[in-house]
Amino acid sequence: MHTSIATVSLSGTLTEKLAAAARAGFGGVEIFENDLLACPLAPEEIRARCADLGLSIDLYQPMRDIEAVPDDVFARNLRRARHKFELMNRLGADTVLVCSSVSPDAVDDDARAAGQLARLADLAQRFGIRVAYEALAWGRHVSTYEHAWRIVEAAGHPALGVCLDSFHILSRGCDPKGIEEIPGEKIFFLQLADAPLLAMDVLQWSRHYRCFPGQGGFDLAGLLRHVLAAGYEGPLSLEVFNDVFRQADAGSTAVDAHRSLLLLQEAAGAAVLPPAVVPTGVAFAELLTPDAEPVTALLTALGFTRAARHHGKPVDLWQLGEARVLVNTAATARREGTRLAAIGLESPDPAGAARRAEALLAPVLPRRRAPGDAPLEAVAAPDGTELFFCATGRPELPGWRADFADLPDTPAPPATRTRIDHLAVTQPWHHFDEATLFHRSVLGLTAQESVDLADPYGLMRSRAVTNADGSVRIALGVGAAPTDDTVNAAHIALATGDVVAAARAFRAAGGRLLTVPANYYDDLAARYDLTDDELNTYRDLGILYDRDAGGAFRHCYTATVGRVFFELVQRDPGHQGYGAANAPVRLAAQHAGRR
Questions:
Q1: pLDDT digits over 25-56, tens only?
Q2: What is the DSSP code (8-state) at residue 12?
Q3: What is the pLDDT of residue 394?
Q4: Measured between alpha carbons, how far is 403 from 142 in angstroms, rounded to an integer?
Q5: How large is the angle between the packed helices 250-267 and 220-229, nearest 10 degrees?
Q6: Cα–Cα distance measured from residue 292 to residue 287, given in angstroms and rounded to the nearest whole number
Q7: Under 8 Å CB-to-CB from 261, ≥6 apart: which residues?
Q8: Computed over its alpha carbons, how large is the radius of gyration of the chain?
């Protein structure tokens, strides 16, 4: 379907917004009046710019406080509207959004509202313009789509129809099924926005907390199905007021926006995309570092052995049980320090996973491949982390492991069932919702509830995405102290059957565990019935403890190297958490360790 986006949804100047929308693949835009007023280009130049970019101008908005007013006020409104219609002709826009009035001049008189809207539509028709009447959720007298439709129906003018806005409909708890009673040709425009489910003033909710479809709690797919069942054939347009989006890069925001509409169409049965290929495990985590020594010392203390080396690149494979870490010392690492650069995901169909990713606008990464290198499919996540779709140990598919030559005289790895339990990746503050939608839509992972974590310098947000059996767990977080790389680091959690033994072995090998304050263990003794021996052991090793209905979760952390640290985890089979209750203690300890 034809997709559009309101310029108010993006940051920057009007010309920057138009360019971002076009690059992201939108077919049209809604021009927000404030963007036009602040633009140095004449309406004709904006029209030409949109044409050059392949964008139609699908809507001009908003026109406010028009209807159900005294005659003298309405006469002034018609004068204002005439000027706007002349401007729209210069701009090349043929539909105007009229919001239900919030003016104190407006009266509760549907007949007067219908009559005045009909006169407005009559004037608009002379300019070749249609009027789309929208019920604001906080409208003075008209606040529901059903009421707006009754007025439009009573007016009976061919140039007057309704604009349906998902936020205004769903924020009030209205049943969207009634949309099917509106003739499709009288639905002039559809605006879409999601939102988190909040208990607050609806105007403030709308102005600050809207988000793209799939990032909130509204059933937009259900609403869209009702709109399509009514016979609507117009654009699917996003109108999102969001403080974060208005400060973030317009280019990445526009891509995220278009991806959300593609996913919404798929969910509503209005489009067919390549099916999601859910990853079945973690093949490897790749660390990029300018100095291998601190990283390899940490891996050695954890029990990893250097098992293989890439035949053409400065990349070593370190392995402990089923956990694999690649250490890449390429020259590019000197610019950014040690960081988590890539994640290899086991995939039952790597090519299919890449097709899905490309269809949902994920950047496909070009690879400089030497002869004999495995042709791995890879895309970039919103934060720049590279995601490789792998087929480890499957002879029928090219595997990444064939690029590595086993090292001679490598000692046999210890017998262990260690694997990667989860990966935690800190997102830039403006990419958090985008990252969640990306991992859900592109990778087919399921998002858990968002959690707020107390940091000594503010709040952190975290949201995990997983596959069905928990073999892939990625915790997405946004940090409270963006300048503190020690705290806002990524980490790799290693699953072990005995965290006490693993922590002791790590420390005996020269590894440094995060020091946890004694006060934590005094509180732990009050909250849980643990033996003195357990408490003393946990205190000695810095092991944190959590428990829920599914069982216990024991974990401890290593010191940070660059922007990476490791976590040792002992998870009871039924426990699905990540130790969120202990996060404030861990964060405070990391801040203290940095100082």
A1: 999 999 999 999 999 999 999 999 999 999 99
A2: S
A3: 77
A4: 66
A5: 60
A6: 10
A7: 3, 192, 212, 213, 236, 238
A8: 28
Amino acid identity at 63: M
Does residue 282 contact residue 346 with C-beta atoms inside 8 Å?
yes
Per-residue pLDDT tens for 559-594?
999 999 999 999 999 999 999 999 999 988 988 876
Within 10 A of 352 (CB to CB), how many other CB atoms are there? Answer: 16
Strand order, beta sheet including 377-380:
377-380, 386-390, 339-346, 281-288, 323-328, 315-320, 305-310, 404-406
One-letter amino acid of 222: G
Model pLDDT for residues 282-328, shown as the tens digit of each residue: 999 999 999 999 999 999 999 999 999 999 899 999 999 999 999 99
Tokens of 541: 């090793």
Query: What is the C-alpha to C-alpha distance for residues 524 and 429, in angstroms, rounded to an integer?
Result: 32
pTM of the model: 0.91
- Residues forming a β-bridge with 59: 30
155 Cβ contact list (under 8 Å, min separation 6): 114, 115, 117, 118, 121
**Distance of alpha carbon 98 from alpha carbon 188, whole angstroms:** 12
Report the alpha-carbon distance of residue 196 to residue 176 in Å, rounded.
18
Angle between helices 532-541 and 518-527 (to 10 degrees): 150
The per-residue pLDDT for 206 is 85
The torsion defined by the Cα of 584, 587, 593 and 595, in degrees rounded to 10, comes to -100
Average pLDDT, the chain: 93
CA 112 to chain centre: 45
Which residues of the chain are modeled with pLDDT < 70?
A: 333-334, 367-372, 397-398, 411-415, 479-488, 594-595
The tokens for 446 are 């399921």
Assigned token pair, 543: 């092991």
Please give the structure tokens belonging to residue 555: 């974990």
